[in-house]
Amino acid sequence: MTKDATGSGLSIKANTDSDSYKKGDFLTLTVTPTEDAYITVIDQGSGETDRNFKLFSDEEVKGNETYTFPPPGAGRLQISGSTGNNLFEVIASKVPLAEAGQTEPKQEERKSKDVNLVPDAEAAEPEPVVTRCTLSFEIREK
Asked: What SS3 class is residue 108?
């Protein structure tokens, strides 16, 4: 399964080595950004699971080079989830996600039912370039 995504000039191509896996299979993901980037891969789960588990975070990669996840020496990705459609979200950013403010809700998004925290007005900073790509693959019994 190959997917392309573009956002604000930063493009990525992400690919799994198959469209379908069974439990116990090993999966390889390749990612090619058009520019130097930080890559984060999130497993969003399948079937009844809804994990949003960060597999790799802010891996620094060079533009126009294809990177394999997991990287050499980091182990292997083995399929063990529920059957159904599994999703990986591949995020490429020009700065680490923590610096891009992507690790927690922004101040204005923190709202309760009765009282809301409103941030002081500050000079607007440009939004960091972040490109997201979602890959889907099937997990089957046999």
From this structure: helix
